[in-house]
Amino acid sequence: MILLALGAACVVASIGGTVVTLSGGKPAAEKDTLHTCFTRARLFIRQRSEKDWVYTYPSVNGHETFEDRQEYTFTLPIGVDPERLHKHFWVFEQGFGPHIDIEGDSSMFTMKVFNKGISQFAYNVSDIPLEGIHLPIVVGKSRSGWEVYDMVENPHLLIAGETGSGKSTQLRAIITTLILTKQPEELELYLADLKRSEFHVFKNSPHTRAVVNDKNELQPVLEYISLEMQRRGDLCDKYEVSNVIDLPFKLPFILLAIDEVALLKKDKKLMPLIEDITAIGRALSVQLIISMQRPDAKLLESGLKSNLTVRMAFKHADDVNSRITLNASGAEDIKDEERGLMLFKHNGMKKVQGPFLSLMEAKKLLKRP
Ligand SMILES: Nc1ncnc2c1ncn2[C@@H]1O[C@H](COP(=O)(O)OP(=O)(O)OP(=O)(O)O)[C@@H](O)[C@H]1O
């Protein structure tokens, strides 16, 4: 832990300014960029001692140099909300350039500063590392390699981004991967395509129980899932287990994906049903993916957002929108031509390039003999 006891005349100056005076009035040298970022992001604790203010900064545990990157590991002081770090991701981008990832989730973090960005690449299911993952959600490639996570552990996902930024392509890659790697008796898909553009490609898959295109068609689907959740809850009670995974028999995962959920926002009947899924679906093996062009603060400020723990933010219009999706700025800096590039929020924040899977290629992969 680095403890900086500063004299009364010594100020940690100009948050957001250019010069940070840490101690004795000496400007921080260039190599102190990390420390400057800690200051600008206010990742320190300030406490009054008898004589002075005492500043507790994150401790830097290590710095390693690799061929393609530098890595800095640091621990936040007790009492600093780790969310502050995510919120101030942009501060670190200003300090270290655009090719950074920050990994970690409570107090210990690693910042990786890469020499270059990530290239676009084509989808190939056999490239994706899937071992040991029950319900694999393919994200793409970060600068450290493949990013795939288990939806059983993190059941609900929010995908947001401007038109043409890559949301539908990402959803296509996610659902195609699930269909190609899970048996129909292991996974049921319920797909709501409120933009009427995309999900028809999955309708002949034996995993797919419903593809709906408007609110009226979605209502019975949500009611069915709601009843199924009740039935699963009753089974858990009967067998005295807290998660359907622990039942003596297997139940399929249920995945509901809703493209352009904002079209439902005024619907007083459907939104509570969707919120129920995010609130209690986890223990019942019922998971949700929602996507939207403009993250809608009103829609998300309900119970929904806190349960959508994993976020994929493709290009956003501005930092206000980015903050709605990620609780952090940054997604507005993704360039128009960087299609399929996202800020991925899950145990930290990192840039990830989604795999490119065209509609035609998906049709070919999903074609049944
Ligand atoms: N991962 C990717 N790699 C390379 N190019 C991509 C990728 N994702 C999308 N693109 C390109 O961007 C175009 C738009 O992508 P996509 O339709 O997925 O955007 P969207 O965010 O769903 O847009 P909308 O909200 O208008 O439906 C694609 O046709 C493709 O050319």
TrEMBL record:
Localisation: Membrane
A GO cellular component annotation in the UniProt record: membrane
InterPro entries per the UniProt record, alphabetical: AAA+_ATPase (IPR003593), FtsK/SpoIIIE/SftA (IPR050206), FtsK_dom (IPR002543), P-loop_NTPase (IPR027417)
Domain FtsK: 134-323
Stretches assigned to coiled coil: none
Keyword annotations of the record: ATP-binding, Nucleotide-binding
Single GO molecular function: DNA binding
Membrane topology summary: Multi-pass membrane protein
Binding site for ATP: 161-168
Domain of life: Bacteria
PANTHER family: DNA TRANSLOCASE FTSK, SPORULATION PROTEIN RELATED
Protein name, entry field: FtsK domain-containing protein
Organism: Paenibacillus pectinilyticus
